[in-house]
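Hey team,

Sharing the Oxidoreductase run so nobody has to redo it. Sequence (270 residues) first:
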Amino acid sequence: MHLRIVDAFTDRPFTGNPAGVLLLDDAFPDDTWLQNVAMEVNHAETAFAHRLPEGGEADWALRWFTPVTEVAMCGHATLATAHVLHTTGAHPGPARFATRSGVLVATPAADGSITLDFPTAPLTRVEAPAGVADALGAEPVAAFDTGANVGDLLVELADEKTVLGLAPDHKALAGCSARGVIATARAEDPARGYDFVSRCFFPNVGIDEDPVTGSAHTALAPHWSARLGRDDLTGLQASRRTGLVRTGLRGERTLLTGRAVTVVEGELHA
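Structure output:
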């Protein structure tokens, strides 16, 4: 079985967010095997996809696993899967994926980018949970629940410098939300090519800090579009690897655009 490692939301190897991608010949194997493969790959997510019969609402079935659990939504591994389908010729046009978050569409463009059509996260302003400021090492300006699909606490911080300087207590953060915490701030200088910055911490699914998180941008897009008065923005996820996500708020849907590059190809013998 052919296994690929793809760096997503970047056009350069060793940046962006790496994902394992396996295109299966048939239906999904049992969950234990899927989880063991994801544990072996040991990236934030490994995507498993198989082709569906023609004439349905989707072309491929898609699931995502971290090293410790299955997740309901994953942007970067969807982008990575769409990149593999497009670059190998397995599915050259727009691909419709049947997932736990409904049908998600990935559309390749002539310039090599891919746009994902995801559900917009519903934001509800909440009081910052007790202890989140101490766990992050910074006081939130505002806090928001991001709904069941994303399952994160989004916290806006005072400025970009504060986000970049975070050194959180990951164990303490685990009690602050279902999946993790998105920390964000407005960009200090939009002339650098991005409108807002973020960092994402997901200790509850085995990922202390995710390099670039597509699903988080379904919450970041409505938050910053409301604040900045524009539907089309660019976010910098300021992890050690970094990555750029172009967002387009379209009501109940959010478009996430980025690039990807395959860095490893090999055979899985299991």
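The longest strand covers residues 17-24.

Ping me if you want the raw files.
A.
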